Amino acid sequence: MKRSTLYSIAALLAVAALFFFMTTARAKVQCRVCMEYGGRTNCAAAVGPTDQAAREGAQSTACGPIASGMDQQIGCGRTEPVSVQCRPN
User: Is this prediction's pTM over 0.90?
Assistant: First the structure.
């Protein structure tokens, strides 16, 4: 294998490792939220720097498949979750 190819692969791996570290370094809390909206239920998990951020991310992700259109997304986001489980990451 050529040296330039090895250097390119090493640089790519370094960038990928840096990206992974930067995205997970602030993730201190993990939440799993289950939502019920329009007769449909979905659960999702998310991580964030605070309980509130992780919960909002999980709630938004859980609403995605069960709400169609912006009006339903907003309505689902304003609905109280069926269950919320948060823990330190």
Answer: no
Asked whether the beta carbons of 54 and 29 are under 8 A apart, the reply is: yes
Residue with tokens 């330190």: 88
Phi first, then psi: what are they for 32, rounded to 5°? -120, 125
Phi, psi of 74 (to 5 degrees): -65, -45
Beta bridge partners of 35: 42
Q: Each residue of 2-33: pLDDT tens digit?
A: 888 888 899 999 999 888 777 666 778 999 99
Task: Please measure the distance between the N-terminal and C-terminal CA atoms of the chain and give it in whole angstroms.
Answer: 40
Helix runs in the chain, H state only: 3-24, 51-66, 69-78
Q: How far apart are CA 70 and CA 49, in angstroms?
A: 27
Tell me which amino acid residue 9 is: I
Read off the amino acid at residue 56. Answer: E
Structure tokens at 80: 């109280």
